[in-house]
Amino acid sequence: MSTHRSTSSSVQRSSSSSGVSGTSKGSTRPRHRVEAKVAKRKPQMPNQIMVSAGIIILIIVIVLVCGIFLGWFGGTETEQSVIRNTSIVIHQTSTTSSSPSPETPSETSSETSSETSSTPSPETTGRSTSSSPTTPSSSSVPDVPDYEPFNYSTYRLPREEAYVVPRKYDLKLKVYLPTYVNVPENKILTFEGDVEIDARVHYSSWLPVNYFVLHMEGLSLDEENLEISTNGRIVPIHHMTYTSDIVIFYLSEKIPINQEFKIKLNYTGKVLKEPDRGLYNITYTGRNESEKVGVVAQLKAIYARRVVPCFDEPDFKAYWTITVIHPEGTIALSNAKEISSEKGPETSWITTRFHESRWMSSYTLSIAIGEFDYEEFDYVSYQPDYPHASYKPDYPGVKIRTYTTPGKTHLALYALKIGVKCLGFLEYYFHTKFPLKKLDMIGFSLVGATENWGLITFTEASFFYDQEIYPLESKYEVATTVAHEITHQWFGNLITVKWWDEIWWTEGIATYVQYISLDYITKGVNKLKDHFATEVMEIAFMLDRPALRSLRLKVERPEDIAGATLPLPYFKGAAFIAMVAELLGEEAFRKGLKSYLQEFSGGGARESSHLWFFLQLANERRSAPFDSSKFGPNGNLLNLYTFTLPWTTQAGFPLVTVDVLNSSTFEITQYPMNKVKDRKLSKDDSSAHGIKWDIPIWYQLNDNPVKFAWLSKDKPLYIRADTENDILVVNGDRHGFYRQNYDEKGWKKIIKQLTENHTIYNLRTRSSIIADAFAAAFEGLIDYSTAFDTLQYLEHEKEYLVWKTVKRALNTVADLGNFFTQCNDSTSYKGYVRNLLKPIFKPSFFDDVAYQSVDKEYLLPSSFEMNVIDMYCQAEAEECMAAYAKIFKKFVLDKCCDTCWAGQIASNCVDVPPPLKKGTYCYGVKILGSKAFEKVNEMAGIEKNKIELTYLRHGISCHDDKQAIKRFLRSAVEEGSFADVIEVFHSVDENHINDDVLFTFLSENWEQIYNRFQNNNNELRAVVEAGLSKTHTESDIQRVKKFIEEHKEANKIEAFSKRIGVIEDRIAWKNRNYEPVVAYFKSHS
Question: Which regions are flagged for Low complexity bias (predicted)?
Fold first, then answer.
């Protein structure tokens, strides 16, 4: 419940709760009366004159009544301005939907206009009131209306009564950072703000307004220096009311509809000391090797209100002019280009002023302050070579920079290269120019990447790459993250979701298009479109299997927004967008996006229905045969809105099942995947579940090309074929977001075909067959023996993406059955995997991996050879582990020492390709024992390179001495940063030698861990999840429950109760599957 406080001791409230009434009881405004005095005359006026006079009088009365109701006579507007405003309302209402957003400005932002304008250069954020507008005479001040409390139960800004929108913010911030200048103790890590907001009563507001609402959280207003003015005069503030994250300003008069007014506020706030949402600090190493403090803003989704009082919802877009006052020795960055950076009277402070930004949502506001270096690329010199590319940018170009803390710019060169190429490709792909003059990217964040207009923030992990140090996983993460955030400059920034309930479509488009752009700029080497189908889709299936939420959410409270930005919208949204793109065809899909962007090129906040409208037009204009996907399940043109509605509003996804109807017909039916355990599959209840989709079916019959048909939500799909001999596979090419299943004979025919000639199916189809077989086995629809039989052909499989699917499937089974541990049956599992891989593994794979790590175009996180090495060594194959131990002895023990020329620092002396370093340290410790452990532990203590330190910590966690592992964990908790603690816990979690150590350590050291992490929920949750990761038995459930009883604070940590549910699911899986699975391993070892 929110706590309210008021700045007025006498607050009048009406008993009504519906807002400001148009007939307020307290209004004493005199009604205008028209009195007609008619002289006595004998002749009567002609009827026509009487009728005309009556009409005139009626019009006058109507105008007067409307004027009183709409507040035309309450301000200083002239009659002409009233007429003008009225005409604007009529014109704009005629072109706006029934639920209007703040209107879109013209395409050209003021950032692209003349840059000669300047802003005063303040050295403090205080504002003189000597030039304030004068207070009007009492005769012009309307009567004070009644006040009714604003109803914040919807947690949304008003959009009917009191609909006020911003047009422009002029924000000045002075940030007090230590380590640069002398800062008073009470001001360290605080900031002073001064904002002037140009706002307007929206033309669709029901009534003139006597209050308006701003978001504000954790800020302190200077209530003595607030100022509201309109038409050059002050509007008195009657009183103000605060809640946890809003402030309501009640005025002493009404502001008419469409009237502009200014809001001037001074305030103070705190820089957060730990990574959080808002303006927070980061500690880093400065130029003189001393510890420095910088700040960066992370405002998505609802945290701009922690930096400035504002209209903090995505459709309340405005222009922003930013001025930052920061310590000498630092630089300040923001969304727009810098105008000037000058010393003021306070010689230890710098004032940096920026041009007016693009029209943008508050959450894309970005500020960073610190010691930064940069690399630059002048985009005008880059000429992308695209086939049939008629589109060329018609503006001078963009300066693209990558910023880092001192001495690290070389680590961001790969991000710069990818950024330049992605920007060029996306301008071509969307046929829409990038609208800013600069694009800065900075590796200076602790909470992920954010697509802020003109200043994208990244963590170092998603921004840095050096082929001599970093693994291929880092290269892949940098490429995909940069491509994703740059795509958001169009879908996310230029066009924004109207509300967070539909965040899925901008995230889905960005995730899907990032793979298209990267596939092109790396010349198809990485098969990234295939990677999308085999990787992104699988993650989406995993996240959506419980069917807990739909793509479109009901978002009403601030805490709901956190759920809207979880991974599901990114992955399922992308999978669904990809299915739509395949339905329309890539070219029609691209043209639809292009038309959408061109229609709303000025920016704006939109709903998914607008997207479907333009994609619908593109679909209707394409040439296609009648049996194609251009037409819907009913035979008419595909109605995209009707098709997409169940997919976006229903949770979960379909299971598509193929059965034999008779000797000449296959029958294809659907059922919600999350419901299959609740019933026995039968044809009679296929429509009883209530959740249905129109499903696009891509199917392959024998070795014929993939064909298309519709599985209607109302009836099965029938495919004519020789069901005895023909082999039918659905979801060929893995275009559809659904799982597949077959009757027993159907699976046997598919397995036989894979064994005889797997190449009739492309890698996407092969991967989906394996993934869906194991998913069906997990749900109890088929035996696990059938799923394992789909792997019999793998001796002939060379595609990395298929092997990645295999690795994921086997690891899931091993995790469920706890086969990675040293239990008796783990030998059967490891024997099975060794038998599977022995014909495939070659010692030369180590050399192949070393070559791939320096291939400039290769960026996948692994490879076929690396996958085989990982799985084979994990199965304790002696020849694999011995190869790693040999590398460890040669490149670590023999090469790194105090007297060696390369020294003792691992990042300097260990000349092992990055993809192999993790295994080298781990298996060196496992095979060579204490000597290797002591060496790795010693090197970790002096290593400064974070990536190398991660490798070393992984090696330490491979030791089988439980006491040594506990010392390793304790050292991290006592001395390491939050990130260090989480990394060490995860390192131990990855290794299965010491399964019982983590929870034991968590229990024994809980008080110390909780005290350290209790104010950081995300970090505490990560530590708890890692600490519980190896609990899997009934006795473990009792241990966790006992722990919760003894530590009351654990009741508030959801990870504990969730883990109990996970253990119960594992026990249920074991009861059903353990014995037959172990029997299969033993028979195939």
Answer: 1-27, 93-140
CATH number, domain of 355, equals: 2.60.40.1730
Question: How far is 1023 from 1008, CA to CA, in rounded Å?
Answer: 12
Average pLDDT of span 478-486: 97
Alpha-carbon span 651 to 674, nearest angstrom: 9
Query: Residue 326 annotated as binding?
Result: no
Distance CA 64, CA 67 (A): 5
Which residue segment(s) compose the domain that 433 sits in? 373-498
- Verify that 331 and 377 share a domain, yes or no: no
Q: How many domains does the chain have?
A: 3
Report the distance separating Cα 1002 and Cα 992, nearest Å.
17
Q: Out of 322, 347, 371, pick the residue that ends a domain.
A: 371
Residues 339 and 193 in one domain: yes
Provide, for the chain, the percentages of residues in helix, strand and coil under a 3-state DSSP scheme, each rounded to the nearest 5.
45, 20, 40
* 507 plus 415 within the same structural domain: no
Q: Is the distance from CB of 1077 to CB of 815 less than 8 angstroms?
A: no
Q: Based on the domain organization, do 536 and 549 belong to the same domain? A: yes
Using the CB atoms, write b or e for 372-402: b if 16+ within 10 Å: bbbbebebeeeeeeeeeeeeebeeeebbbbb
User: Whole-angstrom Cα distance, residue 551 to residue 652?
Assistant: 9
Tokens of 374: 């940069």
Q: Which positions are catalytic?
A: 485
Q: Examine the fold and report which residue of 633, 649, 665 is the final residue of a domain before the chain moves on.
A: 649
Please check whether residues 474 and 608 belong to one and the same domain: no
What is d(CA 375, CA 409) in angstroms, rounded to the nearest whole number?
6
CB 357 within 8 A of CB 109: yes
**Is residue 362 located within the same domain as residue 382?**
no
Q: Is 431 annotated as a binding residue?
A: no
Residue 625, classified by CB atoms within 10 Å of its CB into exposed (0-12), middle (13-18) or buried (19+), is exposed
Q: Beta 319-327 vs 164-176: how paired, if at all?
A: parallel
**Does 1072 have pLDDT greater than 60?**
yes
**What is the distance between the terminal CA atoms of the chain, rounded to a whole angstrom?**
62
The reply to whether 91 sits in an annotated binding site is no
Q: pLDDT at position 706, please?
A: 96
